[in-house]
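REVIEWER CHECKLIST
Item 1: Sequence provided? yes
Item 2: Single chain? yes
Item 3: Sequence as submitted:
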Amino acid sequence: MRRFILPAWVTLIWVLCVTSSAWSQTHGVAVQASQGQNVPSRAQLRQLILPGDFVRDMAPWAKFDPNCDLARGGGIVIPAAMQTLYDNVTAVGGKNFVTLGFNNAACGQASNFGWVDFPDTPALRAEFAAYAVQVVQSVPNLAGISIWNELNGTFNGGYVGPGSAAAKVTAYCLLVNQVITEVRQVNPDIPIAIGASVGWNIDGWFIKLFGRYGCMGKNDPTIWLDVHPYISGVYSPDVSNGWIKWGKKLANIREHGVNNRLIATEWGGPAANKWMQQTPGGNYPQTFQDVIVAPDPSWVGLMWFEALYDTSIVNMGLLDASGLTRVGRDYVGVFVH
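Item 4: Structure as written out by the authors:
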């Protein structure tokens, strides 16, 4: 398998650009069609995204690969709801963004859920990489992919293998490297997000991901850092809560020479709901833009979690049956109009 290494002069230009000039940011929304939520209609999407904005969902490995035969030449099966989502996003001028996640019991794993198991053997990595390749080749108007989901979170990304946290991250980097290598053979330019992180405590995670555990892609402009910056609490420049800690953690990452761009495949959500309860009348999207996004020039995109009202995780959607929610109106005012 080929490893793709940028020439030194390309890396130098990339680092200088990230550290010295502002980038534009693309916004968008995350949906839960892969987990049974409604697919946003084209009319609903037009309320929430501008042309070129991202719409993100998980691509459920088991549903796309029901026979676990992709590495042997089989083909993926895109469920009807997912295809409708991809087509709706394309029709309104948006771009699809896919997180590769879940598991695949057809491959011998314990469950199809992403928080129960993890592809940590050569055979599973080969099948997962084949799944990634076919997703890249099949999803229309694709802006990028991300590898796995919240590996540093409460459920450890589903990793249940032997050993310590070091074993988990090593297994993750083996998966990342195989996916990047094989996807690059069919598409050399598609952005690939790695890290699968959640929360504000990200510096040790991303520094060690490259420096200690061997993930490829450091300072590659096509490899982005996937973050879920769920930040709540009442913002104050004098209180060391997540609002302040995020900037310090990100600065530490940059000081260690990791200059990859950031992609928030989820933000807002339960953290925004908690913040709004603590800050009556406050505008969470504007505060987040001012405090978290604006100070750092390397954001490539942010996708609000989530687009539609969710009956199992309430008060997070930008839209409900009656139209824009309170936070939906704030979001649209900041990022759409």
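Item 5: Key structural point noted by reviewer: The longest strand covers residues 54-60.
Item 6: Recommendation: ____
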